[in-house]
Amino acid sequence: MGAGIAEVLARGGLSVVGVEVNEDALERGRGHLETSTGRAVKRGRLTEDAQREILGRVALTTEFADLGDCDLVIEAVPERLDLKRTVFAELDRVCRDDAVLATNTSSLSVTDIAVGTGRPSKIVGVHFFNPAPVMKLVEVIATVLTEPDAVARVAELVKGLGKTPVTVGDRAGFVANRLLFGYLNQAASMLESGHATRDDIDTAMTVGGGLPMGPFTLMDLIGLDTCVEVLDAIYAESRDRRHAASPLLRELVTAGLLGRKTGRGFYDYDRSAAGASETAESAADGPKPVVGIVGVGPLADAIAALCDRAGAEVRDSAARLAGCDLVVEAAEDAEAGRALLSAAAQAAGPDAVLAVTSADGQVIEQAMATGRPADVVGLHLPDPAGTLAEIAATVATAPGVADRAAGIAARLGLTPVRCRDRAGFIVDALRFPYLNDAAAMLGAGYADADSIDAAMTLGCGYPTGPIADLDRLGLDRAVAVLRALHAETREPALAPVPLLTEHVAAGRPLR
Ligand code: CAA
């Protein structure tokens, strides 16, 4: 991270002094700088001359005293308060009185660091995101002790680097990590509980959630030790058990499997990880399925449209369901869906897969009502215009039926992922709690809607921010999914926050 920040500053035309603990560490830092700028040269984004200039602006040293002339010092040492305090004591000693001292901490309190120095008014947080040269967000953290001028100078400098500063107060996780890590930890718990596989969760969140990386790929990029540190810090403040690091994460950290930096974390970087998509591609090659659709409404229309696009025959009359490979119930409400699917179950052939889309509780309830629960799966398209198909097997689903459903979905041009029969399947179960947290943050006045949205789009590469997402997906839908998640888990933090229910009652979007 230190090398990434040095690169950002040098690319911005600033002279940089990089301090490391010893010569070996300096060499590694130099290596990071050369590799990262070298990648930009290879991609034609930087000329060799420009690379030389950038590297020439970074002076590397092991002496704190060489920082004596700096206007701003950014600390990026490991996340231990004792270590940070030692570094800041040294900085306090060698730096000019008017120099601003910043910490790139992602988990410690900036105030705790500031009070250990002789210049708390000049201590700020500057929080960069991984990979620092790419991500546009920098959170600038002001404590109650920081003088406004120091914050303004740092925010200006960040803008000058082509990044977007979001200035917030000193709360654990600031904006982005506070919203991101509950979601990442929940994904780890989902894996640990056997709800879905690593690959299916990652695929669901990229293909269905539109994210640039799935949660396990991202945790491996961040570093699992950092993930645990950030979660511990957020938990200490929130006392929300969703922030209690999953035992699986701790086990990986104890085993030294920290992610990309050690070659193995959730993924093994020495081996190629293909898996799910290969299966999906080979499954996509069979004959086109015959699909029965029962129920009317936008979802039924969307399913008919995707069958048309895939060249699959669609049957929507009860009399013609006998030869269908898949019969999808796509009613607008669960009560009607239950009756329709039960009737369709009588008409469908013995080899047909029956799919429930309208479960308002668990799929198993609808499955039992059909009289042939062994043939029933849940089917959820988180975005009916998208390509992800989530397939839930219940405890009564016969072995092989979910495989057949996944094969049919693949032949319809969809990307299937599997999970157990739980509220929200994968995508909604992961995204709505995160969206609820964002609404809670907005309601608490910690950050405004623009800052929250900027944090997630510019810091984590989300296509849209959570406040915009809530309006796009519908606040009534958010409240309904959250109520289902809350009813299933009784987890207090999953109950929709008052700001959401109030806006639903008022019929007004958040923006
Ligand atoms: N260092 C430098 N540059 C890198 C890089 C790295 N490690 N990885 C990728 N890049 C550059 C590439 O060179 C490329 O640059 P150009 O467009 O100029 O050619 C660009 O990034 C895109 O790279 P790719 O095409 O190879 O890959 P991609 O399109 O899959 O994007 C990504 C990669 C930018 C990392 C993208 O997947 C993404 O946005 N992921 C989300 C990352 C995220 O959430 N970060 C925040 C984590 S939380 C955190 O860091 C805070 C904390 O406190 C823990």
From TrEMBL:
Single annotated GO MF? 3-hydroxybutyryl-CoA dehydrogenase activity
Similarity comment text for this entry: Belongs to the 3-hydroxyacyl-CoA dehydrogenase family.
Origin superkingdom: Bacteria
Domain (3-hydroxyacyl-CoA dehydrogenase C-terminal) spans 173-269, 424-508
Would the keyword Oxidoreductase be found if you checked this record's keyword annotation?
A: yes
Q: Which InterPro entries match?
A: 3-OHacyl-CoA_DH_NAD-bd, 3HC_DH_C, 6-PGluconate_DH-like_C_sf, 6PGD_dom2, NAD(P)-bd_dom_sf
Asked if the Swiss-Prot or TrEMBL record annotates the protein with the keyword Oxidoreductase, the reply is yes
**Protein known as:** 3-hydroxybutyryl-CoA dehydrogenase
Task: Offer one Pfam family short name for this entry.
Answer: 3HCDH
Q: Which residues form the 3-hydroxyacyl-CoA dehydrogenase NAD binding domain?
A: 1-170, 316-421
Q: Where is the signal peptide?
A: none
Q: What is the lineage of its organism?
A: Bacteria, Bacillati, Actinomycetota, Actinomycetes, Streptosporangiales
An individual GO BP term: fatty acid beta-oxidation
Record keywords:
Oxidoreductase
In terms of Gene3D superfamilies, this protein maps to: N-(1-d-carboxylethyl)-l-norvaline Dehydrogenase, domain 2, NAD(P)-binding Rossmann-like Domain
Q: In which pathway does it act?
A: Lipid metabolism; butanoate metabolism
Q: Which species?
A: Actinomadura hallensis
